[in-house]
Write a structure and sequence with these properties.
With 210 residues, the protein is of the alpha/beta class. The protein is built from 8 helices and 5 strands; from the N terminus they run βαβααβααβααβα. Helix content is 55%, strand content 13%. The longest helix has 25 residues. It is globular, with a radius of gyration of 16 Å. The protein starts with a strand and ends with a helix.
Length: 210
């Protein structure tokens, strides 16, 4: 099997940028890798992503939201992640099960025990080998989100949530990191992109053993 590395963080933490840069770093080292994301890492996931994130989507109840994310994850693991790992690639994934715990558990207030059961079933109990948590203060993250949105763009359903929601999500992530310190690597994402990436490179170099 390869290595499964996930990137997590609240809105505006810079995950997507850092995952892309990490892929470029691995490519430069001639390492077999795959960059993917949730929701939307497979064809079915792209449809689910539209429903889950677009602000114009129909109202979605909290429990329905949980199961839509689980459906995306089940297909993603089966179709994309597991095959890549079996080919001994390094899989870099933008969000995974920890996001569901942070957003639907801490953010929405759904039962954490139920979420763990749903996550494990959808993911075939596949856990990341390492998780890079890009930790940013919610005020700073939301400021970034708003500054990158054009006048014609609307924030997605999660970006549009109240500040207190994002504070609870961050608390969820930090709680997960505290519970599994050997898996999590926390990076201060309040810093600029280059400084954050230097820390990401250091972690990846340590993981690769060079």
């Amino acid at each position: 099997m390869g290595l499964f590395i996930t990137f997590e963080g609240i809105e505006g933490s810079g995950k997507t940028t850092q995952v892309t840069l990490a892929g470029e770093y691995l490519d430069g080292r001639n390492v077999s890798f795959l960059v993917t994301s949730e929701p939307g890492g497979c064809d079915l996931g792209k449809e689910l992503r539209r429903l889950l994130l677009e602000s114009a989507s129909p109202w979605i109840s909290e429990r329905a939201e949980l199961f839509l994310f689980a459906a995306d994850r089940a297909q993603h693991v089966e179709e994309i992640i597991l095959p890549a790992l079996k080919e001994k690639a390094i899989v870099l994934c933008d969000r995974y099960c920890d996001a569901t715990i942070a957003y639907q558990g801490y953010g929405r207030g759904l039962d954490l025990e139920v979420i763990n059961i749903v996550n494990n079933y959808a993911a075939r109990s596949l856990k990341p080998d390492y998780t890079i948590l890009l930790d940013v203060h919610p005020e700073r993250g939301l400021e970034r989100v708003r500054s990158r949105s054009s006048a014609k763009e609307k924030n997605d359903r999660f970006e549009g949530e109240q500040l207190e929601f994002h504070r609870r999500v961050r608390e969820g992530y930090l709680s997960r990191a505290k519970a599994e310190p050997r898996r999590f690597h926390i990076i201060n994402a309040d810093a600029d992109v280059d400084d954050v990436f230097e820390q990401v490179k250091s972690i990846l170099s340590e993981i690769l053993g060079s």
